[in-house]
Amino acid sequence: xxDLKYKRVLLKLSGEALAxxxxxxxxxxxxxxxANRLKEVHTTGVQMxxxxxxxxxxxxxxxxxxxxxxxTADYMGMLGTVMNSLSLMDALERxxxxxxxxxxxxxxxxxxxxxxxxxxxxxxxxxxxxxGAGTGNxxxxxxxxxxxxxxxxxxxxxxxxxxVDGVYDxxxxxxxNAKMFNxxxxxxxxxxxxxxxxxxxxxxxxxxxxxxxxxxLWDSTALLRALRGEAVGTLVSG
Length: 238
Description:
By secondary structure, the chain is of the alpha/beta class. The chain is built from 8 helices and 11 strands.
């Protein structure tokens, strides 16, 4: 990997990334497209882990609005992330990428229990690891799970995959004059209340000096260029 800047990274994907045009459910062609993109990275030798959301299957807010218990709603979301993880694992293995799903909630029939040292060993052996079930605790988002797992496995970078080029000062879809930031500090993101990741995740990255790169995964060259250290997306760091 002589031309790559990072050896180990964690990619945070929203559940909606696996959905089709409707924004709901799991769309096999979309999952296969993402798997092919990740295979391109994996073949470079970069050690990669992935954390998925579950917004394509379940939005806890809908349950909360009807009086559902918060913990129950969050556990349902965690189970949704495992479903998404299994779908991505299947698509990756069909491309020839050895993959392991590790779940923070024990379900041995479908996923390995999350053990930090085992996860690191999988990556050292060239396997792509998908972390499912968030942190295993209610009241924590998958953004926070991504920051936590990245710190635990000693990742050098958290990549937040979106469908826009980076972080803007306003919605670029609504404001054609929206300004994109090339680089920001953690404090600036928190003070501006920008929706990069939730405040708990940003704070966790800040405390562990873990940079966050926000980029457009659907730009076919963005991910590889970012791993080479080229100026892509928005880098949030100290």
